[in-house]
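Practice problem: predict the structure.
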Amino acid sequence: MDMAEPHLPERIVTSLISSDYARLVGRTLSEQLDYLVDIASLHTRDELLRRLGRDRALVRRVETWLGSHGRRLRRPTESIDSAMCGLEFRKRRIRRSRLGARRRRLEAKAAAKVAAKATASEEPR
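Answer:
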């Protein structure tokens, strides 16, 4: 028995990355492909049925694929905002922005110390 991770047909991938949710998740095709699980999990079952031409078998493939990644489709009662809060792409962006902010603060402190030392060494004794 083959225990390989399920994969998505190209038709499904193309449909997911052409959705409005894909543009919320990533600006480039590369980013969107990296976060395809996030994009898929933002859809409800009804939205996917409409996108995939009412093909229930394709929707079940997406559900199986999401399940293999420990994820699920968004419930109709869940808002898109609440669904997006815990997504991986947001966590990574937040981490990156926090690291960048910390780096900028540290660089500013280091520059202030250098300037203070330079000023102190220029003062007559």
